Every structure is written in C-alpha cells, then in structure tokens.
C-alpha cells in the first residue's frame, strides 16, 4: 500500500504507534454505531491487534489508511477502500437481465 499525499493530508499505512488513536476512535459510540455490530472497543490489546491488521494490508488500491495532517502530524481518521461485489440488479439503462458475475474493480469508500 503506497502512501498518498495532498497539500494538506497524508494517507499512510498504520503502525503500532497508532494503537492509542484507534482505541480512542473505536471507543466512541458515535463512530461505532456505523461499524459492524456497533460494539465499542475498550481493550488496548484489541486496538494493537487492529493496528497490526491494518498495517499488514498490502494492495495497491484497497486497504485502510491512516489520515494524517501533514502540517502537524496529528492523526485525523481512517480511510477504507474495499472491494464491493456488484449487485445482481442491472444498472439504469442496462440490459434488464441480471448479471451472472460481479463486475471487477468496484470499490467502496468509507472514512471516520
């Protein structure tokens, strides 16, 4: 997973040092209500394991990046790009027959 930079932000691979940020982020009900079961995370070991899982992702496009402020270096959030299987329903204007297989290259974006 390569780092990506804009004038203001750096999207980078997570490191073990990011575990306290992930613990704080995933301990917030207002964040977790949108993720999985909605259960908050309060165990530092879970946050360390999450940071290690995120760091191990290695794909040129899909993955989970740390969003960092380039000026001060503060972590601001996370960015997720994941494969999304195509729906069996046709897109508007498509042939009305359902697709037999997912389209390759469809990606979902998420952030918090």
From TrEMBL:
GO terms for molecular function: acyltransferase activity, transferring groups other than amino-acyl groups. The keyword Transferase applies. Residues 89-112 are annotated as: Disordered. Residues 103-112 have a biased composition (Acidic residues). It holds the Pfam family Acetyltransf_3. Keywords: Transferase. The keyword Transferase applies. SUPFAM superfamilies: Acyl-CoA N-acyltransferases (Nat). Residues 8-86 form the N-acetyltransferase domain. This is N-acetyltransferase. It comes from Clavibacter nebraskensis.
């Amino acid at each position: 997973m390569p780092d990506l930079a804009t004038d203001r932000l750096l999207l980078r691979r997570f490191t073990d040092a990011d575990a306290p940020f992930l613990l704080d982020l995933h301990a917030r009900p207002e964040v977790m209500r949108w993720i999985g079961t909605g259960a908050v995370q309060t165990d530092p070991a879970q946050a360390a394991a999450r940071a290690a899982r995120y760091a191990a992702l290695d794909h040129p496009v899909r993955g989970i990046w740390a969003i960092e402020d380039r000026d001060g270096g503060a972590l601001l959030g996370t960015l997720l790009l994941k494969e999304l299987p195509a729906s069996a329903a046709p897109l508007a204007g498509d042939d009305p027959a359902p697709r037999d297989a997912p389209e390759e290259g469809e990606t979902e974006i998420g952030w918090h």
